[in-house]
Amino acid sequence: MKLGVFDSGLGGLLIAKAIRDRLPDLNMLYYGDTLHLPYGNRSPEAIYEYARRSMEYLFRQDCRLVVVACNTVSATALRRLQQEYLPSCPWPERRILGVVVPTLETAIERGHKKIGVLGTNHTVRSDVYRQELQKLDPEIEIVQNAAPLLVPMIENDGMPWIQPVLEHYMHPLIMAQSQCVILGCTHYSLLLDQIQNLAGQGTAILSQGEIIPGKLADYLNRHPEIAGDIGRTGEARYVVSDLTDSYKKAAESLYGGPLNIEKIQEAQ
Ligand code: DGL
User: Fold this and answer.
1) Is 70 one of the annotated active-site residues of the chain?
2) Which CATH number is correct for 100-208, 3.40.50.1860, 3.30.830.10, 3.40.630.30, 3.40.50.300?
3) Domain 2-98+210-263 carries which CATH code?
C-alpha cells in the first residue's frame, strides 16, 4: 500500500517533496485535482464533493493513509470526510489527515502566544484555525486574513505584480503584532521570503512544508499498524486530473526539478 498526498492542484507538491525528503523510502502517490482548481472560492458543497471523489480515487489506488495538503479542504471538508464518508466507504479502516491541527500544535510548541494566519477565503471564513486553537489552548490569540488573489496570481504568472497585493493582505497581521504567521495555503510557501521581509525578522513564518513531514513521521511511529501496511521501496507517482504544458512547467518549478507528472485516465 502507499501514502496518498492530496491537493486541489500543484501547490501540494511542495509538501509532497518535503515528505519525500524526510521519508524517502515511503511509497507515495500524489494527486492534484487540477481539473477543478482553484477550490478556494468554490462553495463548501462543491469542495466536499471534489474532495470525496479524490479520496475515492486515492483509496482505489491502494492508499492506506491520505494527507490532505490543501488547507481549503482541511478547513471545509475534512471533518465530513472523516466522520461521514470514511465509515460508509468500502475502506473504513483507511485514514485521512489534515494540516490545520499539526500546524497549530507546532505554533504552540514554539511558544507563540499571538498567531497570524493567511489563507484562502474558505479557510479563513470556516474559522477552523480559531476553533481548533480554542480546543488546544484558548489563551492564545489568533488573527486571520483571507488572501484570495494570491493563488490565482501565483498560478497565472502574476508574481511580478504580487508585492503590493501581499502588503495589503499582510497589513492586519502586522498591525496585530502577530508573533508568527502561518502560511495557511499550499501555495504561500513560494512567497516565504517576501512575507518574512514584510513581517520583519522578529516574526516567525510557519510553512507547512517544514512542519508536516515531521508530524507525519510522529503519526506513523504512533500507528505501527498503519505504518506497517505502507510499502517502503521508495516508489513515487505524481498524477493530476488535468494536464497542460503550463501545469507541467508549474509542477517542475514547484517541485524544484524534473518531475514525471501524469494525467489520470478516470473521469472525475
Ligand atoms: N491548495 C489550496 C489551499 O491550500 C489553495 C489552492 C486552491 O484554492 O485550490 O488552500
Assistant:
1) yes
2) 3.40.50.1860
3) 3.40.50.1860
Confidence at 152, pLDDT banded by 50, 70, 90: confident
Q: Is the peptide bond before 24 cis (omega within 30 degrees of 0)?
A: no
Going through 45-161 in order, the beta strands assigned E by DSSP cover 63-68, 95-97, 114-119, 141-146
CA angle 124, 128, 130 (to 5 degrees): 90
pLDDT, average across residues 60-79: 96
3-state secondary structure of 144: strand
Q: What is the dihedral of CA 241, 59, 97, 77, to 10 degrees?
A: 60
Average pLDDT, the chain: 95
Task: Judge if the beta carbon of residue 184 lies within 6 A of ligand 1.
Answer: no
Give me the residue spans of the domains in the chain.
2-98+210-263, 100-208
**pTM (predicted TM-score):** 0.94
**Alpha-carbon span 229 to 197, nearest angstrom:** 43
Mutate to test the pocket of ligand 1, among 68, 72, 118 (most ligand atoms within 8 A of CB): 72
Looking at residues 22-45, what average pLDDT do you find? 94
